[in-house]
Write a structure and sequence with these properties.
The protein is of the alpha/beta class and 259 residues long. The chain has a single domain, classed as Aldolase class I (TIM Barrel, Alpha-Beta Barrel). Helix content is 42%, strand content 15%. Helix 5 packs across helix 7. The chain is globular.
Length: 259
C-alpha cells in the first residue's frame, strides 16, 4: 500500500561541481532499481544543476528547508514558490534546524501548511533527544511534535493521485543523527506503531495514518538498512552522511527494494 521512499539529505555538503559529479555516479544505479521512490536533497545552490541532471529520470528532487511566506523582506530565506519551480519535496523541522536555528513546532507547522499550499510534499522530521529518551519521554515528545507540527492542515485540497497522503514523516531520534549510533529497528518500528501513527489518526483519521509514509533516519548505512526496512511500519529512510557516497546510497535504496 505504501511505496518505499529513500531520501538523501546532503546537508551543507557539495559545491555545484561536486554535486554534478555525485549525481552522475548515482543516476545509473538508482535508475536500475524499481519499486522505490528516490529523492535527492542537495543544498539550495546545487538544486538547479541537480535538477538538470535528473531530467528524463524518475528520481525526485527535494530542498532542505524553506520559509513559510510566499515573498517578502526576509533576507537570506527561500520561499515555497521558488522551490516549487525546481522541487517536488522539502525537508522540514530537521533536528539540526530546531537545535541550531531555533525552529519550533509552531514554525514547522507554518512551513508544512505553506509547502502543501504550493504543491510541495513536506518530509516532516520528528524525534527525541538523548536526554528525553533516557527520561522515558519519547512518546510525549514525538506525539507533541506530530500534533503541533501537523495541526490545522487543509488536506482535502492537497490530495494527489500519486499518494493518498500528501505528507511524509521522518522519525529521527536526535541521539542517532550523525553519531553512528542508530536506534534499534524494532525500537524505531515501535515508536512509529505506538506513537506516530496513533497521533496521525487522532488528527486526521485512521485512513490517513495508514496511508502516510513514515521513514526512519539516524545513522542509516548500507550494512544496517535492511534491518529497518523489514519492519512493517518503516517505509524507507531519510539518509544523511551515507547519501554523499554513491555506492552506499545505491545499496540502501536496493535494500528497500527487496524488503
Amino acid at each position: 500500500m505504501r511505496t518505499a521512499l529513500i531520501a538523501g539529505n546532503w546537508k551543507m555538503y557539495k559545491t555545484i561541481a561536486e554535486a554534478r559529479h555525485l549525481v552522475s555516479e548515482l543516476v545509473p544505479g538508482l535508475q536500475a532499481i524499481t519499486g522505490v521512490e528516490r529523492v535527492l536533497c542537495p543544498p539550495f545552490t546545487a538544486l538547479l544543476a541537480v535538477r538538470a541532471l535528473l531530467e528524463g529520470t524518475d528520481i525526485r528532487l527535494g530542498a532542505q528547508n524553506m520559509h513559510w511566506e510566499s515573498a517578502g523582506a526576509f533576507t537570506g530565506e527561500i520561499s515555497p514558490p521558488m522551490l516549487a519551480e525546481l522541487c517536488q519535496y522539502v525537508i522540514l523541522g530537521h533536528s539540526e534546524r530546531r537545535t541550531y536555528f531555533g525552529e519550533t513546532d509552531e514554525s514547522v507547522n507554518r512551513k508544512v501548511q505553506a509547502a502543501l499550499l504550493h504543491g510541495l510534499t513536506p518530509i516532516v522530521c520528528v524525534g527525541e533527544t538523548l536526554e528525553e529518551n533516557e527520561a522515558g519521554r519519547t512518546a510525549e515528545v514525538v506525539a507533541r511534535q506530530i500534533k503541533l507540527g501537523l495541526a490545522r492542515l487543509n488536506l482535502g485540497e492537497v490530495e494527489t493521485d500519486e499518494h493518498p497522503s500528501p505528507i511524509v514523516i521522518a522519525y529521527e531520534p536526535v541521539w542517532a543523527i550523525g553519531t553512528g549510533r542508530a536506534a534499534t529497528a524494532s525500537g524505531a518500528g515501535a515508536v512509529i506503531a505506538d506513537v506516530i501513527r496513533p497521533s496521525l489518526a487522532e488528527l486526521y483519521g485512521e485512513g490517513f495514518a495508514q496511508a502516510t509514509r513514515v521513514l526512519y533516519g539516524g545513522s542509516v548505512k548500507a550494512e544496517n538498512a535492511a534491518e529497518f526496512f523489514v519492519q512493517p511500519e518503516i517505509d524507507g529512510a531519510l539518509v544523511g552522511g551515507a547519501s554523499l557516497k554513491a555506492s552506499e546510497f545505491i545499496a540502501i535504496v536496493q535494500a528497500a527494494a527487496i524488503e
